[in-house]
Design a protein that fits this description.
Layout (H helix, E strand, L loop, with lengths): L2 H8 L4 H7 L1 H21 L10 H28 L2 H23 L5 H28 L7 H27 L7 E2 L3 E2 L1 H28 L2 H22 L6 H30 L4 H8 L6 H8 L3 E5 L5 E4 L1 H7 L3 H4 L18 H11 L1 E9 L5 E12 L5 E10 L1 H52 L6 H32 L5 E4 H11 L1 H7 L2 E4 L4 E4 L1 H17 L7 E9 L2 E8 L31 H12 L3 E5 L5 E8 L2
Parallel strand pairs: 9-11
Antiparallel strand pairs: 1-2, 3-4, 3-7, 5-6, 6-7, 8-10, 11-12, 12-14, 13-14
The structure holds adenosine-5'-diphosphate.
Length: 648
């Protein structure tokens, strides 16, 4: 059976919750040991007890064996994942285990001073490796890509370390090294330096790792970090001891043994993790260092939405790259801290965070547009989608928010809305102005016309020919002005009189229009044909106006032949496209856009009567129906006017 499956199948069912409960006592023990170390140091009790094999057995059970297992799992983990921190942790654990195993084994067989020398040097070596692991962990230089390269590295590092440890052992036992310890007197200066450094490196590694605990909340990291801290304390203890076997010496050894126990607990967490996720222990180990970037992590990193995860106390435990970009806070600044501190949120409709949490309990997810603040205090519009996270027992376990920065979109929308409002207002003003102006202008105009006519009647005989002609021009001008004002009034009425659209039967509309145009149709021998016409949503009167204007133009701008007009309809997408085709004089294609503008004409008044407003009215009506109008024409080849009406 391989070691992973052995670990997996032998682990008890509920150890994880059990380990979870041990968290506080685990920390309490560490604090107690700190206290006792100081106490024993100051009491300086000389009594010593050091039976030959006790230390060896304890070390074998609590440090030696677990170290070998952890080192083996780490080795396999590195092979699979290429994760550097795992490699250094593995070889560090192995060296640490071997240092205690070798030195305990040699008790009674070699001089105490030599044993202490070799032990101290090997754990110094181990501390360097642990520190290297922790350093790689935070600096994210964490993956070796080449698989064959990994095998070579393992061979070199593990073998190299074993040879180094053996070498240290041999030269220590042979007495080639300066003594680190003199029984009864305590450590030498060189020992103090080496052990001091070792304790420091263990402490630094544990510090880095425990800091990661606040980021990841990983229980493995917790025990692993505390384990290293205990080892660091243990080394402090033996650094201060003056004789082996004294209470202080035992406290130091005890702290190291306990460190071993903590590492065993960390290993149990790996096993449990492996079992729940149905993966091998080595894979679980590398995942705890969050070294192998999973697809999910890659995704979190690359999405443009901020993804923010909190624990059940609403402390931030996840903050992706987009969150950094959107809010301006770096992950290191926010992780482990209350979300409230960073995400000051204005909720819609007098909501607040407690409403939201209540809502989340009922609905599992919540979406809204909210306003939050960037680090620089700028407001940002956020489209948020928050879901609650539940544990296996369906208890609230935190939240995950996917937040999209919609500030730019919001600003653009607001600007467009403002422009639309302003446009509507100025249009309304303009329409009102056109209506009032055309209405009121007619009054003085009528006065001018009637007084001119009065002038003509009263002074008929007193005026000469020229004067008569001038009065005629003036009357004609006034009449033209009156026509234009009438048309303008009609034009302004198209939108100033709001109508509700109703179904309009275009067959009937055409019939009505033909009645209105009976005289010009008869006079000009016009032939009008048409496709079956649909019923559309619009307004009867306006639709008559459209047909009347288009048909009367086709008659007015006729050619030499008798006018022939065909009205056809086809349906395209969601609109009806009407066309009115004639065989009239046609138009120069370069003027086709101009004719829909108010008072724009292509012909002089003495050629064709008109004010140039008919097509502008048609266009305005078609727009009001929600459609478009355009024309195709060539001089001498007739014109075809098209307009669309949406089919709702
Ligand atoms: P009006 O007919 O009073 O001049 P309109 O707005 O109805 O005003 O038409 C604008 C101009 O478009 C006309 O002066 C004419 O030059 C041109 N036009 C309109 N309909 C036709 C048509 N069926 N054939 C040729 N030209 C046309």
């Amino acid at each position: 059976m391989d070691i992973d499956s052995a670990l997996i199948s032998e682990s008890p069912e509920n150890e994880f919750t059990f380990i979870e409960k041990l968290k506080i006592p685990g920390l309490a023990i560490v604090i107690l040991i700190v206290f006792l170390t100081f106490l024993f140091y100051f009491l300086d009790i000389e009594a010593s007890y050091d039976p030959e094999n006790l230390s060896f057995f304890l070390n074998l059970i609590f440090i030696g064996m677990p170290s070998v297992i952890i080192a083996f799992v780490a080795l396999r983990s590195f092979l699979k994942s290429g994760a550097w921190p795992v490699l250094w942790m593995g070889i560090g654990t192995l060296s640490f285990g071997l240092s205690t195993l070798i030195s305990s084994f040699l008790i009674g067989k070699a001089p105490v001073n030599d044993i202490i020398t070799l032990h101290n040097l090997i754990i110094f070596f181990a501390s360097l490796l642990y520190f290297l692991g922790a350093f790689f962990m935070i600096n994210r230089v964490n993956q070796m890509e080449s698989k064959s390269g990994r095998r070579n590295v393992i061979l070199q590092v593990y073998l190299g370390s074993l040879i180094f440890i053996l070498f240290i052992t041999v030269i220590s036992v042979q007495g080639f090294l300066p003594p680190f310890f003199i029984q009864g007197e305590g450590g030498t200066t060189i020992r103090h330096i080496v052990l001091g450094l070792t304790a420091f490196l263990f402490w630094a590694a544990s510090f880095i790792i425990l800091k990661q605990y606040f980021r990841t909340n990983s229980i493995f990291i917790y025990w692993y970090g505390l384990g290293l801290l205990l080892i660091s304390l243990g080394i402090m203890g033996i650094l201060l001891e003056s004789s082996m076997g004294t209470p202080l010496s035992w406290l130091g050894r005890g702290a190291q043994l306990l460190g071993g126990v903590y590492l065993i607990i960390a290993t149990m967490v790996i096993v449990k993790e492996a079992r729940t996720r149905n993966i091998a222990a080595d894979e679980a180990l590398s995942s705890f260092f969050s070294l192998k970037k999973s697809n999910l992590e890659q995704l979190l990193k690359n999405v443009s939405d901020a993804i923010i995860i909190t624990d059940s106390n609403l402390h931030i435990i996840g903050w992706n790259k987009a969150a950094e970009d959107i809010y301006g806070w770096k992950a290191e600044e926010v992780l482990g801290k209350p979300e409230m501190e960073f995400l000051e949120t204005k909720y819609p409709h007098n909501m607040n965070q407690s409403h939201l949490l209540k809502d989340l309990n009922l609905k599992d997810s919540w979406n809204a547009e909210v306003i939050q603040k960037r680090k620089n205090n700028e407001d940002i519009n956020i489209l948020t989608s928050i879901s609650s996270l539940k544990d296996e027992k369906d208890n609230f376990n935190g939240t995950i928010a996917i937040n999209r920065d919609i500030t730019l979109r919001k600003k653009a929308e607001e600007k467009a809305e403002k422009q639309a409002r302003e446009l509507a207002r100025s249009n309304a003003e303009l329409e009102n102005f056109a209506y009032v102006a055309s209405h009121d202008l007619r009054e003085p105009l009528r006065m001018i016309t009637s007084f001119l006519q009065l002038l003509k009647q009263r002074y008929d005989d007193k005026l000469d020919e020229d004067a008569h002609e001038f009065i005629e021009f003036a009357v004609d001008g006034a009449k033209r002005l009156d026509d234009m004002i009438t048309d303008l009034l009609e034009y302004s009425r198209v939108t100033s009189q709001k109508r509700d659209f109703v179904p309009v039967n275009c067959e009937k509309i055409l019939e009505e229009t033909l009645i209105l145009l009976k005289v010009p149709i008869d006079e000009n021998n016009v032939i009008i044909t048409h496709d079956p016409l649909p019923t559309v949503l619009g307004d009867d009167k306006l639709m008559v106006q459209v047909f009347q204007n288009l048909l009367s133009n086709s008659i007015k701008y006729r050619g030499l032949e008798n006018p022939k007009i065909h009205i056809s309809v086809k349906k395209e997408n969601k609109s009806y496209i009407f066309s009115v085709k004639d065989n009239g004089i046609g138009m120069d294609p370069k003027h086709l856009k101009r004719i829909f503008t108010i008072f724009q004409r292509l012909h002089k008044r003495d050629e064709y009567e008109g004010t140039g407003i008919g097509l502008s009215i048609v266009q305005k009506i078609v727009h009001q129906f929600g459609g478009e109008i355009w024309v195709e024409s060539e001089p001498g080849k007739g014109s075809t006017f098209y307009f669309t009406v949406p089919d709702n």
